[in-house]
Amino acid sequence: MRLYFDTSVFSAYYDERTPERLRMTRVFWDGLTRYAKLSSDLALEELKQAPPELAQKMLSLTVGFTIIPIDDEIKALAQVYVQNNVVPSKYFADALHIAAAVIGEADILVSWNFRHLVKRSTRLLVNYINAKRGLPSLEILAPPEI
User: Fold this and answer.
1) Which of 15, 101, 134, 140 makes the best surface tag, with the fewest CB within 10 Å?
2) Which CATH architecture has domain 2-145?
3) Contact present, 31 and 66 (Cβ < 8 Å)
4) pLDDT digits over 48-74, tens only?
């Protein structure tokens, strides 16, 4: 099984403001040995925006991950998701994460983003669009659901 991690999962590993989410993230992390782990250079760039010490800690979590470059194919698919109201254009980065997971052949996109990603309507729309384009389906789940 191939898991794509968006930025929220890395940041939750160190986010002491939400102790329960931090605990659930670390429990999830402890069970990752049986999965192929993916992320993208977009996530790396987003992680680098944190204060330097925290950024370094979060980036160290990506060791052993396959990093998917955000290329023109991913950008074009993300634009399709935005045009079809999967996510608002203001949150294009969320569409890029979805597209990177799909093009990177992830089985599951793992996220703590309940506003735009981890919700039923997003899963349905993504998979409807993917089916029309001959692309694989994608589950979008929060870490405790894995």
Assistant:
1) 134
2) 3-Layer(aba) Sandwich (3.40)
3) no
4) 999 999 999 999 999 999 999 999 999
